[in-house]
């Protein structure tokens, strides 16, 4: 792995509808964005930068020894935000891979971040992501649990090629279902192409941004991991993260 060519980008915005100001929410004595920064640094896969639309978030990251860049407030997705941040770097042309770690994953395991790079060992893959097998019955039919329909691709036992992503229960019939984890590792040219494309019909229907890539012929492979990281979207999630990181 060429760490000097990898860039971990953590998009962070203050305007969360369900948990306003969550990047600065205290978790075990540190703002949440700093906890995510530390998890990304522990993964040790490359340089780590927070991309934010708020000066206060940037200041907190810098105060805790991290690197941060400002972006516009009007981005519709984290992918757009990290691309703007990338383009504003003086050495952007040296970056080959961008790992997008969401800014609300304070308990994510460093090995999960590392696993996102595994599918990119195949040169045909444009972007990589993560899945885990669904073990709870209630998740099978939960539209908030995004499923990936995939197939083995002969490259590695723990990698699947994505055929579709859906909020429905799929595929039909006996066999495992896979919970999609929204962490992505992009080849730089793939990210550049993706943000230039308009939202696609299935993306708008399912409200799943990754379908834009599939609908435009981009290849997504996913590494199979053991656990789903806790995303902090509600006050209850925040209390769970505090309990985990206070141990």
């Amino acid at each position: 792995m060429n760490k000097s060519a990898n860039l971990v980008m953590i998009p962070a915005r203050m305007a969360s509808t369900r948990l306003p100001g969550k990047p600065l929410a205290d978790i075990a004595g540190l703002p949440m964005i700093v906890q995510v920064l530390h998890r990304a640094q522990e993964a040790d896969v490359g340089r780590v930068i927070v991309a934010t639309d708020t000066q206060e978030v940037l200041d907190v990251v810098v105060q805790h020894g991290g690197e941060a860049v400002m972006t516009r407030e009007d981005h519709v997705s984290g992918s757009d935000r990290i691309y703007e941040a990338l383009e504003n770097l003086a050495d952007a042309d040296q970056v080959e891979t961008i790992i997008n770690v969401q800014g609300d994953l304070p308990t994510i395991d460093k090995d999960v971040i590392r696993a996102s790079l595994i599918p990119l060992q195949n040169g045909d893959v444009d972007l990589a992501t993560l899945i885990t097998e669904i073990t709870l019955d209630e998740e099978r039919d939960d539209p908030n649990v995004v499923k990936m329909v995939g197939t083995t691709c002969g490259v590695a036992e723990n990698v699947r090629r994505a055929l579709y992503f859906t909020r429905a229960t799929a595929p039909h019939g006996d066999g495992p279902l896979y919970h999609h984890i929204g962490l992505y590792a992009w080849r730089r040219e793939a990210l550049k192409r993706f943000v230039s494309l308009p939202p696609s019909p299935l993306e708008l229907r399912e409200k799943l941004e990754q379908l834009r890539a599939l609908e435009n012929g981009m290849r997504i492979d996913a590494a199979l991991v053991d656990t789903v990281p806790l995303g902090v979207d509600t006050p209850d999630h925040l209390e769970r993260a505090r309990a985990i990181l206070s141990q």
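The first strand starts at residue 6 and ends at 12. Residues 32-43 form the longest helix (12 residues).
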